[in-house]
Design a protein that fits this description.
22 helices, 3 domains, alpha+beta, 4-stranded antiparallel sheet, globular, about 10% strand
């Protein structure tokens, strides 16, 4: 990890950041202590002439990362989802990073396809175009299947990209080690853990089987969603280094003139994009976490088509309920309930005052609701909410930060289509629908039924489990004589759960 090659990359990184003017911005965002500032200048200033110039039209930090190459671009994009690490302002700067690079030769893509499929390309595709899109990790070609003639999109990894990324990731670990060594106070931000998170995300993106699986799961979850479409995966033409999807014809959501010329209703599209994102996050707990205009199209029939499933987000069932209750509490301006939800979920330490927390939440909600409809932002609300909860001792929850970052992007897409959109009015039906289905008597009955079913499966073992738990609590442990009451306790729990289920089912 600390070999000459990585040391050279470390020096080149410092020199590039110094030459592009990004060094000062990064040190300020990190609130770097004196040892780190000195080390950064030592690495950067004397070797400034070795640094890459980058594009002067781009802000300093994105300029430096873009100049340093694909791994740095991808790292910056992932850091843009972690304002808890880099700060809100730096996260906003990093969001402008564009993952677009010159394409590699089509002949190289053809060789990758033939190697992966172990067959001549002509036996698989009757047509195989020049690249139609190129990014840091892969590029896309339009092709046509030999057997059916259907058009498809073939995504192919850049040759050698895995080795290049692994080399740069080793350099990132070296940088993290240097920061932690020179500044013990920086360990609270866990630089090595951040690099490990980046490595995990990138390694998944470098295996297109994972993206194909994500696309398949997303398509299965959304197949009943009217007005939303996910291209089908061609499983027999997908592997580690290539992925084939049905071709999605349509207009990019960024091309407003073409959308208007085609006669699509932009207000309806804006509402659908926002509602679909919330529905996927709340209903399924599995959402597209990179929903910018470049990954969304409008099909000729008016459907919104999603593309590029390399970055997806997950939220467990319990967190979804908490999130929905928090949103609904703000929509109803019931700040006391929002505070109680945080305490019930264990997000805020129990020794804090509920009333004071509710008052702080009011300071978050009221200014936003006082805004004009065109300025109301759910993403801004979540950002303010995280600031308040952090002051009350709430630990960072990375899944909610990813959700908040994606919410900001989706709101931006919706506002580009309809500048007058009222985010709360559009979101309310989706949140209320989720709450009706998942919070209240109906949901409680369903939960009790599931509990009873689990207990029934373990029913014969409940007496032994209860007795084992009691024996484990005895100190010092000693052998107890078998008793009849643990058996009665186990069957009483099972019977009570069944009775509660029956009561609630009769009241529905």
């Amino acid at each position: 990890m600390k070999g000459p090659h990585n040391i050279w990359r470390l020096v080149r990184t410092g020199a590039t950041f110094e030459r592009t003017g990004a060094m000062s911005a990064v040190l300020e965002a990190m609130d770097a202590p004196r040892p780190v500032r000195i080390a950064a200048r030592v690495l950067g200033w004397p070797f400034k002439w070795l640094g890459l110039r980058g594009d002067p039209k781009v802000p300093p930090v994105p300029r430096a990362l873009t100049a340093l190459g694909p791994a740095y671009i991808k790292f910056g994009q992932i850091l843009s989802t972690r304002p808890d690490v880099v700060g809100e302002e730096m996260a906003r700067h990093l969001q402008v990073l564009q993952d677009k690079l010159p394409p590699f030769p089509t002949a190289a893509a053809r060789r990758v396809v033939e190697h992966e499929m172990e067959a001549p390309l002509e036996t698989l595709f009757s047509e195989f175009s020049e690249p139609v899109a190129a990014a840091s990790i892969a590029q896309v070609h339009r092709a046509r299947l030999v057997d059916s003639g259907r058009p498809v999109a073939v995504k192919v990894l850049r040759p050698g990209v895995e080795r290049a990324f692994r080399t740069d990731i080793d350099a990132f670990y070296l940088i993290a080690w240097a920061v932690e060594t020179l500044s013990p106070s920086s360990r609270r931000l866990r630089p090595s853990d951040v690099i490990a998170h980046f490595e995990g995300v990138v390694m998944q993106e470098l295996d297109l089987r994972i993206e194909a699986s994500a696309a398949g799961e997303f398509a299965a979850n959304t197949q009943g969603d009217e007005g939303f479409d996910v291209p089908a995966v061609e499983w027999f033409l997908s592997s580690r280094r290539m992925m084939t999807l049905a071709w999605a014809e349509g207009i990019p959501l960024s091309d407003l003139a073409a959308i208007d010329a085609a006669g699509h209703d932009r207000k309806a599209l804006a509402a659908r994009v926002l509602q679909m994102f919330l529905r996927h996050a709340l209903r399924d707990g599995f959402f597209h976490a990179d929903m910018h205009q470049g990954n969304l199209k409008v099909a000729p029939n008016g459907d919104v088509v999603a593309l590029d499933f390399g970055i997806m987000g997950r939220i467990d069932a319990y967190t979804r309920r908490v999130y929905a209750e928090i949103l609904m509490g703000f929509i109803r301006k019931d700040y006391r309930r929002v505070a109680e939800v945080h305490f019930e979920a264990g997000y805020v330490p129990a020794d804090r005052d509920v009333g004071e927390f509710a008052q702080a939440l009011r300071s978050v909600g009221e200014p936003i609701f006082g805004m004009d409809a065109t300025r109301i932002s759910m993403g801004r609300l979540l950002a303010y909410l995280f600031e308040v909860t952090e002051r009350f001792g709430m630990e960072t929850r990375t899944e909610l930060i990813l959700l908040q970052r994606t919410m900001v992007v989706v709101e931006g897409v919706a506002r580009s289509l309809d500048p007058s959109i009222n985010i709360w009015t559009v979101a309310r039906p989706v949140v209320e629908e989720y709450i009706r289905e998942n919070i209240g008597p109906k949901a409680l009955a369903r939960d009790l039924f599931l509990t009873a079913r689990v207990l029934a499966r373990f029913g014969p073992r409940l007496p032994q489990l209860a007795e084992a738990a009691l024996l484990a609590q005895s100190n010092p442990p000693r052998r107890k004589q078998p008793s009849v009451w643990p058996e009665r306790l186990g069957w009483a729990v099972l019977g009570g759960s069944a009775a509660l289920v029956a009561v609630f089912l009769t009241q529905l």
